[in-house]
Input
Amino acid sequence: MSTVIIEVSGVVGTITLNRPKVNALSRELIEDITTALDSMKEQNLRVVLLRAMPGVKVFSAGHEVTELPTNGRDPLTYNDPLRQVVRAIQTHPCPVIAMIEGSVWGGACEMVMSCDLIVASEQATFAITPAKLGVPYNISGILNFMKVASIPFIKEMLFTAQPVAAQRLMDCGVINHVVPTAELESFTHQLAMQIGMVSPLVLRILKEELRVLTSAHPIPPEVYERIQALRREVYDSEDYQEGIRAFFEKRKPVFHCK
Ligand code: LCV
Ligand code: LCV
Output
């Protein structure tokens, strides 16, 4: 059974996450999302919506924790499914609008914030959780957060790992619109139709120009390697194991900085 529902209405394609219980981003779910995005490239679409089922409490619980490696491998390498779905959204030729109900966790925050626009219901919340789980987030993931939010705000979300209300993210320029849940679908579809009426060729070049320019951060190879070495110390640490163990034991992690 596919973990996503795909619908096309006119020039708007919709990808609905549908993986019980909490849309945790497993390899399977991410492959279904990227396959849906690829299939939509072949159709004459102008906008893609990414959403969960209406009325969900949890939009996505983030990375499927059971798929986080615990054998000393980097949990967020270039080919990790989470990295792949973020790039698939960022390079998709059409604007991708995230329509958010419920709570968004961990890597799902980066996936949503990599969409071109975000429309959220008033009750939606976002929690960026690597620090809670003991995961050394990867450098392009951090850059994706920097693209949409100020450094102080992103530091607060990363350092506290706590849920933040959609309104606060809109006040900080991360979310485009916060609307009452009852209006979420109609508002988002109206926005999609507006975008669907302008030149798709111009949209494609504008999106790619913005992606290239916001990703242009020259880092000397040695600096990159130093960051990778620091990240390796973390994912090789006992704290990383403790973060994942605590998750499965449904208890708070106790970190010892080793
Ligand atoms: C697998 C899960 C998950 C899950 N994976 O229902 O950004 S990083 O670096 O941290 C990155 C690595 C990342 O994204 O890590 C994952 C970060 N995600 C989180 O911290 C969210 C963890 N989940 C929760 O806080 C709660 O499960 C939420 C609030 C999402 C839902 O709470 P609720 O009380 O409604 P349960 O907690 O009972 O979860 C329902 C089932 O989903 C599993 C969880 O283990 C439980 O399974 P069982 O019913 O078999 O016990 N589950 C939840 N999240 N990310 N599995
Ligand atoms: C020549 C004009 C213009 C005009 N050029 O009075 O950013 S990019 O990439 O798009 C870039 C290439 C660019 O800047 O493209 C131009 C973008 N501009 C617009 O899309 C605005 C187009 N204009 C309008 O929406 C309306 O004209 C406004 C709202 C500006 C004014 O409306 P209003 O009803 O008051 P009219 O539309 O009747 O315009 C008065 C006269 O100005 C001409 C227009 O053709 C009309 O000429 P005639 O009286 O001879 O019919 N006009 C308006 N804009 N950009 N000519």
The domain at 1-182+199-258 is CATH 3.90.226.10 (2-enoyl-CoA Hydratase; Chain A, domain 1). DSSP finds eleven helices and ten strands in the chain.
